[in-house]
């Protein structure tokens, strides 16, 4: 009885974790905020660090672009490319694939120009991304 309950709870938590990673759900709650005695108490204790573009750890210098690339984890979490707080490629946008994922960005303005992926496991040439050559 107890072992079945532990297995069910573990499966539920694992499923919730995978779903939150796939759909990029971010949780800012913790047990301290959930069980806080008053909203004023919680507001006084919460000090969030500043949020920078693309979720990087510090602000970029002037005349530089903020970018972040994440490779993903097998078939669970897909790759993601973000430039100047604009997500160019991700599993949610359904524009990534296995192999090399490439985003072409204007170096002067930071404007995204094109995104493609090259399936290295499938073999052959990358016929649909001729701008790479």
Automatic annotation (TrEMBL):
A Gene Ontology MF term for this entry?
Answer: carbohydrate binding
Q: What is this protein called?
A: Protein FAM3C
Q: Which UniProt keywords apply?
A: Lectin
């Amino acid at each position: 009885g107890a072992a079945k309950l532990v297995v069910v709870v573990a499966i539920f938590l694992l499923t919730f974790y995978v779903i939150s990673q796939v759909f990029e759900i971010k949780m800012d709650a913790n047990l301290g905020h959930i069980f806080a005695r008053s909203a004023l108490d919680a507001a006084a204790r919460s000090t969030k660090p500043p949020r920078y573009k693309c979720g990087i750890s510090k602000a970029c210098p002037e005349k530089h672009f903020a970018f972040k690339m994440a490779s993903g984890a097998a078939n669970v979490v897909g790759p993601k490319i973000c430039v100047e707080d604009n997500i160019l490629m991700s599993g949610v946008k359904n524009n990534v694939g296995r192999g090399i994922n490439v985003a072409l960005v204007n170096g002067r303005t930071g404007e995204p120009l094109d995104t493609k992926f090259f399936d290295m496991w499938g073999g052959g040439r990358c016929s649909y991304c001729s701008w790479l050559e």
